[in-house]
Amino acid sequence: MYELGVVYRNITRADRAAADGLAALGSATVHEAMGRVGLLKPYMRPIYPGAQVSGTAVTVLLHPGDNWMMHVVAEQIREGDIVVAAVTAECTDGYFGDLLATSFQARGARALVIDAGVRDVKTLTEMRFPVWSKAVSSKGTIKSTLGSVNIPVVCAGMIVNPGDAIVADDDGVVVVPKAMAAKALEAAKAREANEGAKREKLASGVLGLDMYKMREGLEKAGLRYID
Amino acid sequence: MYELGVVYRNITRADRAAADGLAALGSATVHEAMGRVGLLKPYMRPIYPGAQVSGTAVTVLLHPGDNWMMHVVAEQIREGDIVVAAVTAECTDGYFGDLLATSFQARGARALVIDAGVRDVKTLTEMRFPVWSKAVSSKGTIKSTLGSVNIPVVCAGMIVNPGDAIVADDDGVVVVPKAMAAKALEAAKAREANEGAKREKLASGVLGLDMYKMREGLEKAGLRYID
Amino acid sequence: MYELGVVYRNITRADRAAADGLAALGSATVHEAMGRVGLLKPYMRPIYPGAQVSGTAVTVLLHPGDNWMMHVVAEQIREGDIVVAAVTAECTDGYFGDLLATSFQARGARALVIDAGVRDVKTLTEMRFPVWSKAVSSKGTIKSTLGSVNIPVVCAGMIVNPGDAIVADDDGVVVVPKAMAAKALEAAKAREANEGAKREKLASGVLGLDMYKMREGLEKAGLRYID
Amino acid sequence: MYELGVVYRNITRADRAAADGLAALGSATVHEAMGRVGLLKPYMRPIYPGAQVSGTAVTVLLHPGDNWMMHVVAEQIREGDIVVAAVTAECTDGYFGDLLATSFQARGARALVIDAGVRDVKTLTEMRFPVWSKAVSSKGTIKSTLGSVNIPVVCAGMIVNPGDAIVADDDGVVVVPKAMAAKALEAAKAREANEGAKREKLASGVLGLDMYKMREGLEKAGLRYID
Amino acid sequence: MYELGVVYRNITRADRAAADGLAALGSATVHEAMGRVGLLKPYMRPIYPGAQVSGTAVTVLLHPGDNWMMHVVAEQIREGDIVVAAVTAECTDGYFGDLLATSFQARGARALVIDAGVRDVKTLTEMRFPVWSKAVSSKGTIKSTLGSVNIPVVCAGMIVNPGDAIVADDDGVVVVPKAMAAKALEAAKAREANEGAKREKLASGVLGLDMYKMREGLEKAGLRYID
Amino acid sequence: MYELGVVYRNITRADRAAADGLAALGSATVHEAMGRVGLLKPYMRPIYPGAQVSGTAVTVLLHPGDNWMMHVVAEQIREGDIVVAAVTAECTDGYFGDLLATSFQARGARALVIDAGVRDVKTLTEMRFPVWSKAVSSKGTIKSTLGSVNIPVVCAGMIVNPGDAIVADDDGVVVVPKAMAAKALEAAKAREANEGAKREKLASGVLGLDMYKMREGLEKAGLRYID
Questions:
Q1: Residue B51 φ then ψ, to 5°
Q2: pLDDT digit string, tens, across residues D176-212
Q3: Average pLDDT, stretch C122-129?
Q4: How far off is chain B from A191, nearest CA to CA, in Å?
Q5: Other C-beta atoms within 10 Å of F55: how many?
Q6: Which chain C residues are Cβ-neighbours of A27 within 8 angstroms?
Q7: Do residue B172 and residue A8 have CB atoms under 8 angstroms apart?
Q8: Exposure of F12 by Cβ count < 10 A (0-12 exposed, 13-18 middle, 19+ buried)?
Q9: Structure ipTM
Q10: What does the DSSP assignment read for C2-44?
Q11: Pick from A154, C67, C108, E211: most CB atoms within 10 A?
């Protein structure tokens, strides 16, 4: 349950270098490296293909049809942040458009992750300000009810704490608890290190069955080949 | 409830200049300018990004899996029209493809808005004939049951009257009652007029909190800042 | 119901030339030519626009969250195949990424059709390895339970037998029973043959109502024109 | 598009006897008798089984999360009315509970049809005040924005005009335009008249194939029997 | 892909005693006994609680909005059958009501399983003719297109062959291939045999952790208890 | 993000009397009394109507298709608890049936709230062990992966901490943070105190418009009555 009407100004952010470094690895590798946890539901989609970012979360809790707190969170953004917005109930309204994006970008935000709708996607695409959302909608919002900024929120099924690291790309959005960011980066890099060699082998026609030595396991499990 | 088997040939269309002028403003601004009404449900998506059109609605009511009336409506299209197609029950079939698009385009139609499916989207994209639909599907349709043309229809949850103005872009589809088209255009232009100045301010780092003078209202509502 | 833990190595594939020829016609024309059967549900979407392929199906049955059999099916791929993957329960996990795609491509596969999720879509797009899926998700999978390869499966609501011809493009995915592939190709070509002439007529402003001689039928059905 | 902030006090209601008589026939028979039009989307479900009512519509347009107008519409209810509530955007909040039901019932309302949520369903069931809704939810609503009363609304995909006849039961909700109520009742009664005889025949083992003389039509259509 | 326009009259049905015996075990136990395969998607729900049946499948393939073949399948029903109905595309129309139920019941059918809608559910409940469906809808259907009877169909995601055993209850619908019916019954009975003893133990407060000897496995997997 | 493989044995539970007292008020009143927060998504539905319970949460985090931790959580149940089960990804499998219910009931649990599926609902109904779930499914689960017990979880979109108070009935499920349970009970009682008087007034025909003195506010907001 949520604490309403508060703005936490001093939050601890994940290690800067770690949070920044995750983008290059991508959401799938980071998710894998963390033991397959931290993924937001796959209905969260980018508004344009190809964006790949990471950063530190500032969180905002919104009410359905009300984007007042988006202006409040803007002030809390620091260089390298990604705004993570949750709503207290299901809503597809367009909470965010090109004016707010201009403001967020000016404050140093790299992206918005919102469990609701977004609009002005054409302009946002031209501005190269990426948004992951569950809907695109022209529907505007009012400014009348208090939510909160920088409290723990549930966004697309996942708990996000202020300061956590976020990595997002065409495959989805992954949250990395701030305490684990450095370790997650290291693990992800390790995973990726030998991908090049594997890719080359597979490209040459070697089968995963042989490269990963799966044949014995499959046989043990009872796999039968029928001609 | 719907009147079936009729084609209204003489409909009053929204003021031409107003209907044409809405495109430049876009669906979000027009929707906002009208007091946040008139938006079709956000599941209506364009088949390719970047299209931005406005025009006058000719409406058609279809039966599930039957596109006979699409040929009937083609004859009623005039230069500057947008065809708005509703179905009497949920259906995702591909009612419309490149041949019909060729015909619609030849008659002067600017777009199709259909609460069902569309196909040949690759060719439609090459032709630059935009369609907003709820699905893409190869599934063809038969031609055996009468619907109607130019009656009021419910398309994606919204009543559309023949002759209403329609504006559609990447953010969605908005219907403007014909009697309000000129006023809506004016209001939308007014909204947009001072957007440039606002954008500049926000880009320079000024916060919406200050630009919109929200701080007092937030304090009154009880917002607490915690360090 | 499914036979588990088996791999059929020798399957009869649809006639090569026929299977290859379907791509040029596209899913909508082939679907139409077959009497409007064989279409997978329209939630199956391509990961990038513009891909248009056909080939012969090798099938794989997977368990939720487990992609072990993807490595098993890789060995059964021959030049010109399309892998069709079904899951025993609803799942949106990312079963397939760039490493498996490298392997599939090296073995001669042209595409993947999967009733689940896919990841690394940015790299897959760069590789031009097309995938039709119901979701995109960073979520990885384990390798612990046996499914089957080259058994009949239900993919997105449609039965696919190993060796059937598959045609997929921006409009969707259609399966053609292997015994009907040659006939389907011929029928589809016949359909397309006179499309050029029709398109020209429609482009010149001739109405479908006249070109298809629909006016009498509509009148008989009781259509009334009201001025 | 909707006119906001108005209450029409004097509406013409469908013929009383006709509106009352429809309940006994049921939604399926009435829908059939009207030529299969007028059905609200099938996600509209009754809160308890067995309720079967008909009456005249008073309509109300609500905003998401705001039930202020429910109190306004209460005053417009007359004996024999059914309240039909639409919302300007998707919402599942519980707009209606036992207090409002007590008020509606005291004013003579027979039921509520709402394209949103309802709560206190246990008490409503005990009170035998039936509601057809798209959701059940504890979530309450505020009272701050004007909608309208007795304007035409779109409820679950169907246009409902104030004064139209409504029939609702376990199978769904059907709207009958007020001008057609008497005729629809008559047609529905005619349909039902010979159902008893049919039921007896079918119960004795006679096939619909023979009773409806379908065999010839099926043969003509090409049906083949294979032993 | 489906063969259209055919009725197979002579099908091999699952062993009678086995098909009949499955009802007492219930869908969950049978599903478990078969190795967790054969379950239709969980959106298939009974129209009233408490029905628990099993029998042999006669299958029917329908077109969207067309129930002509329901009359054709009626003739193929024998004592102890359950009709399994699939549709060639998504549809929620009410294909089946009290008249058809009277006919099916007279022919010896025990239930209907339909991947679409049903109506007259109040009367069907009174008749105690159970139906598992994906929707309830007043919407009637026409009789104009040929499907097929007793071909293999895909119903709610699962292949059902004519003659297969079906078991359905409040938990869902399971299909048992005819060749496995006797074995499945035996396995299900074995599963159930020692459930009584287990239930007594658990009721007395013994934990599954101890009864199933799970503690060692959990410890091995690394479970940590924190006080 | 979740901590995996841990069981917290000593949790602080909400005040017993407060947690127990909430049931009588019901989820809607409690939700209202708390300022309209704490409601799980409305897709959570009871398996039978009429159950109304409250208690203290013990939480369990499960993996898709794996109910191993359900046996682990059983040991942590104390008299008056309600088990709240979350899953790391979307799943509708039947994690819970009559055997586990027997065990939970023997340990003192009053209900299960699970963001997944349940089975044996007929027996659970007979046992009067209520379950709120998002699905009913015969599909069983395996026992192979560690989750956690008594960590904070996200269940149907809401954070639930171990020891929080839960109230659930036909209208839905509400979570009350343990520290607020007593206050929430008091507030809910206060809300209910004057409901009797209100109900009587409304039953006598007094309008909410007058009882709540809404007329002035509506007039101020601009409501127009048209005769």
A1: -70, 140
A2: 999 999 999 999 999 998 888 999 999 999 999 999 9
A3: 98
A4: 36
A5: 26
A6: 138
A7: no
A8: exposed
A9: 0.94
A10: ---SEEE---PPPPHHHHHHHHHH-HHHHHHHTTS--BPPTT-
A11: C67
